[in-house]
Design goal:
The protein folds into two domains: 159 residues, Phosphorylase Kinase, domain 1, CATH 3.30.200; 151 residues, Immunoglobulin-like. Helix content is 18%, strand content 32%. The protein has six helices and 14 strands. Keywords: ATP-binding, Kinase, Nucleotide-binding, Phosphoprotein, Serine/threonine-protein kinase, Transferase. Its EC number is 2.7.11.1. It catalyses: L-threonyl-[protein] + ATP = O-phospho-L-threonyl-[protein] + ADP + H(+); L-seryl-[protein] + ATP = O-phospho-L-seryl-[protein] + ADP + H(+).
Length: 324
Amino acid sequence: MRLWQPSHKSQYGRESPSVANDGGYTPSTPTSPTPVPASGLLLIRVVEARGISLPPGIRLPQVPQQISSSTPTTRGNRDSLQRKLCWWLPYVVLEFDKNEVLIDALGGEVQNPTWQYKAHFDVSRESDVSIQIYLRQATQTGNHTNDMGNDVFLGGVKITPSFNQPNKMHEQWYQLSGSGNVYVQVCYKKDHANVPLTIDAFDLLKVIGKGSFGKVMQVRKRDTSRIYALKTIRKAHIVSRSEVNHTLAERTVLAQINNPFIVPLKFSFQSPEKLYLVLAFVNGGELFHHLQREGRFDEERSRFYAAELLCALECLHDFNVVYR
């Protein structure tokens, strides 16, 4: 059973489905999207920063003397251990197309930390690279080890990769929004192999959701080690319930939408029995989970969430989608 017909390559670097108009949903395109690069890999290396300063009124965390007086510089197999030892130095949140990586420092000092971290990201459309630098305010002991809500924002920068210059390394010092500069290397590489994507390209980690048509799993893409949410849909189920056009429309709209509050579609492929949608994995948890944990939100937080939801709904309405 084949539901997605490879009629032609779309501008999103994937094969476009043929969606018949039988009186069902017909997605619209409200604006002409920016031309996007061919699929490929984006290499990003966050090297170091210099001249970082703390915001007024912020004090450095209390660092154990035995840690602050000894910051070994060896690399290789000791990287993960060294990063844990330098927990008190600024860390980086690196993001590209909703995919985030947290980078702990290898050494240096608070004003001049060193990361020397390289990451690969899958490219399926244009997106900026976001680099944000934070300083932890709690030690790695106690009940709030993983709570980063109180961490101090030190500065950030957005970088637009040069997708029209493949295989060229772009490296420079970028001015941070706070104080100081960060040294970053960026290189885009086209995918010339054009090998069809299959389920074998992913390591299945765990089930994170189930629905009437299938399930959603957390997966790791083997070549880049990036984490995604993989939605599997059984073809027999959507055919028996006459949901083919709606399913194809969902895939088409997700491929076109570029909104900060809507999870983007990265890849789509199929097997004889199943359809697969690979989406960005957003690890913040469901809104209802946070509401249950907090009991109630204050007015400022409620206003913030409501604004995000309204922006997402407005974007869907522009595509003639009514979310229920």
